[in-house]
Amino acid sequence: MSGIYLHIPFCKKACHYCNFHFSTSMRYADDMVNAIRQEIRLRKQDAKSSVETIYFGGGTPSVLTPQQLRVLLSEIYNQFEVIGNPEITLEANPDDLSPEYILDIQKLGVNRLSIGVQSFLDDELTLMNRAHNASQALSSVEHAKKEFDNVSIDLLFGNPNTNLDDWKRNLDYALQLEVPHISSYALTLEPKTALERFVDKGVVSLLDENVVEAQFHHLVDTLTQAGYDHYELSSFGKPGYHSQNNTGYWQGKTYLGIGPSAHGFDGNQRYWNVSNNASYMQHITKGELPQTIEELSVVDVFNESIMIGLRASWGVSLQAMENELGLRYRQHLEDQAKRFVDEGLLHIENNALKTTRKGAFLADGISADLFLIDFLAASS
Ligand code: SF4
Q: Which residue among 18, 71, 118, 193 sits deepest, i.e. has the most Cβ atoms within 10 Å of its Cβ?
């Protein structure tokens, strides 16, 4: 299977916490659509197999008109072999989802909507500098559900000035809406964001880590009790509604990344496009791919399998590690993981290393502790 990810680098407003690649000027939107279309053509030979998932991410893909989206989807169908019923996801912000827009994108073939709700509370949305308010968050999901069976919402926890009760209210709204998929992330302080400046100046204080952890555990308990599979650290889906596109990434499947700042993987190499709209368009116009390519070393494969596996419900397969990298890598991992197993943060189940309930919140930090810098140096 392979997937196609398209990065649409435009947003209406800069959210205070976000360091993704986007521009708030739509002036060159048509030129960008043409450039992305051209990149689809340039990458025609790169697809390893039929396309099973198409994902419009960003940025905010829903700032594009249905006509602009149609141009991109048509080009994908022209250049690649696409299976009969691919998962086609569009990330959308609540303020873009009018009933007409929802109908239009459904007619294009989009069959999964991922809505950037982030919060159902106005105070939080204002602090984040989101372009929508709480009432739009609710109504957009209600409208989307009338036309789309497969709807996901994003929710952000760990927001400044919040407590566990605020988070419970957010989750109550989410459960009342009965969406089949929820992605939920802890707010992180990213470099060069407005939030970082506010924190540095003392205008905003980050939430106490114990409250963030309590919010995470409440999230996991509430959603699993409500019948969602917690299949990846930040991903909760009803059976049959897991994101096929993202599961492909986590299971090491190949995908093409198209658009400025997009990443791709061909099974051996990763590449990423330049994160600059003007430079991206200049290169593409000349018929060049503005990409940096990295061949994955054994150490990269080891580290990635830990980073992804400890976030996934299926864990890090020790057998797969032994088969792909050799017994000494497996043994090294088991030796290094032992202290986390003893602390009750990791456990081994079905020959796979997984986080426990207690360890899940710390998955990324545990992964970093298990990373190899250089195996030869580490084992000498
Ligand atoms: S809408 Fe999404 S991509 Fe755009 S600034 Fe906000 S969080 Fe970042």
A: 118
